[in-house]
Amino acid sequence: MASESERESLPFEPKRDRKKTPKVPSRPQPAETSSGAKSRTQSRSRQGREGIPAAVSQRMLRRMALFSGLPTALGVVVFLVAYYLLSQEIIEFPKSLVLLATMGCFGLGVVGLSYGVISASWDESPGSLLGLSEFKLNFGRIRESRRANKSS
């Protein structure tokens, strides 16, 4: 693995040597000219190029669908099966058990959303199947970014 100074930083990593820009009092802007509109669209296109690459975005989306969709679907299935069992009087159990089981599944679905994003490889390489090593790396990046933003 390349050292921190050698590797190219990702678009959403914090900048190391970031300095605060002094706040400028707001002044009314003069009427916009056509050259001003061009520069604004050019800066927007630059921002788009620096965003999350398509391959990484698709990987995150697939992982979010898997790690969130399965527990959520399981919660719906648990609810429907419990409804059927109770309405047909096949088995008797407390309704609070159904509530806790479905809420637990839906809660796992919410956690799965976060895990799906953080466990995806943020580099162009696909990474591992479960993404445990990527999770450790990306969670470290997030913590580092929060510390950098908190101190500045």
TrEMBL record:
Which stretches does UniProt call biased (Basic and acidic residues)?
Answer: 1-16
Q: For bias kind Polar residues, which ranges apply? A: 31-45
Q: Which residues cross the membrane?
A: 65-86, 98-118
Q: What keywords does the record list, in alphabetical order?
A: Membrane, Transmembrane, Transmembrane helix
| The keyword Membrane is annotated on this UniProt entry | yes
InterPro entries in the record, alphabetically?
PAM68-like (IPR021855)
Q: Which domain of life is it from?
A: Bacteria
**Annotated region Disordered: where?**
1-53
| Pfam families per the UniProt record, alphabetical | DUF3464
Instruction: Give yes or no: UniProt keyword Mitochondrion.
Output: no
PANTHER family assigned: PROTEIN PAM68, CHLOROPLASTIC
Instruction: Please state what the protein is called.
Output: PAM68 family protein
Q: Species name for this entry?
A: Vasconcelosia minhoensis LEGE 07310
Q: What is the lineage of its organism?
A: Bacteria, Bacillati, Cyanobacteriota, Cyanophyceae, Nodosilineales
